[in-house]
Amino acid sequence: MNAFLSLFFWVACVILLAVLYLVMLVLLVFTFPFDPQRKILHRQCFWWSSAVIGLNPFWKVHVTGLEHIDPKRTYVIVANHQSLADIVVLYQIWAQFKWVAKESLFSIPFLGWCLGLCKHISLKRKDRGSIRDVYREAIRYIRSGMSVLFFPEGTRSETEGMNPFQNGAFKLAISEKVPVLPIAVSGTRNAIPKGDWVMKSTIHCTLTVLEPIETACMEHSDFPGLSESVRSRITEKLTQSF
Question: Which CATH superfamily is domain 2-241 in?
């Protein structure tokens, strides 16, 4: 039964991604002249995320803290990273943002094509030139009123703990004087089984939007403290979830 339900889910995921891509392509034709940030295309990912979660009999997702998101404000959004399922779950905040995502994701059929259509930010790891380009693009988005979402661990954590945080997101928030919006994601580590396509048990995932941290009065030298404060808050919330 688990194998049958898992097969149904993966087939449904491929179909949903294909439908999402086709919907985005059609909408792009009509919205290209007046929606340069592709906000309308981004909104299509909300129903896609809800459909993927709703069709998976093994995923139970609980979201809290949405009251901390002010749609009129621009944020540097920071989340911990456990698996590819984070991408699906994080759309449940129903907010406009641009991902900073590794370059390889953009080459995945349908998923990567959708990322490209929405003009998310591609990062080539360990490439200083790419890191500088990401920083410049993120600044451009933030100054135009678009939030940017970072996984400051850089890569998925292999344990229940988090990897050390990289500093770029926090330097950016301070330099642009925008608040950091921390998000704690728990349970997604086992949402997609490693080396297997069969899901064997129900996974309870929680997404908690924490209170924003203002940076208006911070100096550049404050970024280590900001990074540690955000990491501590996310760690505390993850500990409560275990």
Answer: Glycerol-3-phosphate (1)-acyltransferase (3.40.1130.10)
